[in-house]
Predict the structure.
Amino acid sequence: MEFDRRVQIRVDRLEKGQRQKGFGSGYLVGPRLVLTAAHVLDHADPDAVSPVTVSLPDTGERQFPAVVRWQRMDDTVDAALIEIVDGHGWQVPQSLSDLLSRPPQRYGLIIGTRPHLVTASGFPRLQKETTDGRRLDEQFVGHIAPGTGSLVGRYELTGTDPTPAAATGTHGSGSRWSGMSGAAVLAHDGYGSDLLCGVMRRDRQADNGTRLTATPAARLLADDAFRALITEHTGREPVLEPVEPAALL
C-alpha cells in the first residue's frame, strides 16, 4: 500500500431540502484520479461551488475541487471515479509522479478458495478527533473468504484485530466504520507488490468483531467505461491478475 495515495473526500449534500456534509475515503489510481464508493457521493448539491473535494490527510487537509467522471451503484457495484480539477495547485504524490518508470496501480482477483489476507486504510468515524473533528487514519487488516458473498458478487472482509469503539463525544448513532467507505482493499501478491482487489462498501455491523463488504475489482474492470478512464489517466489499460502466487494455485 502506498500511504501517499490515501485521500479524504468531502461532499456538500442536499437531501430533502437539508444541507449536510458527507465524508468518505478514497485511493488515487492515477495522478489525479480517485477511486471511492459511489454512495459517498450521494445527494451532492449541484448548486454548491465545489460539491466534491479531495484532500491529502497529511498536508493540512487543503481541499481540492473534483468532478465525478464515472459512478455506478447497483446490487453488485458501489464505486466511483472522481477527477481532481487541474489548475488548483494539486501536487501529485511521489508514488504516482513517474508512470513511465513505475507502473500504475495493479488490480487483482482472488481465484482460489483459501481465505486471503488483505488490508485497507481509510478514515472512519472511530478515528474522529473529538477536539477538532479531524479524521485520523485506520489501517484495517483482515481476511477475505472467497466462499462468503460469492453468490451475490461481493467480498466479505473479516477483521483480525480488535476494533475500538468510536471516540467518546462523537455524536450520532451510525457505524463506527462510517467514513471508511471508498478505501481501497489491497492484497499482497507474494512478490513484494500489492494488488487492488476491491473498494470498501459497507459495515455489516457484526455482533462480534468486524465484518465489512467490498466491491471486487473484477466487477470494476468488467465495465468498459471504468477501464477507459483508467487508461486515459495512466496511459495503460488495467489488467486483472490473480492475487495468489502461481506456486500456491
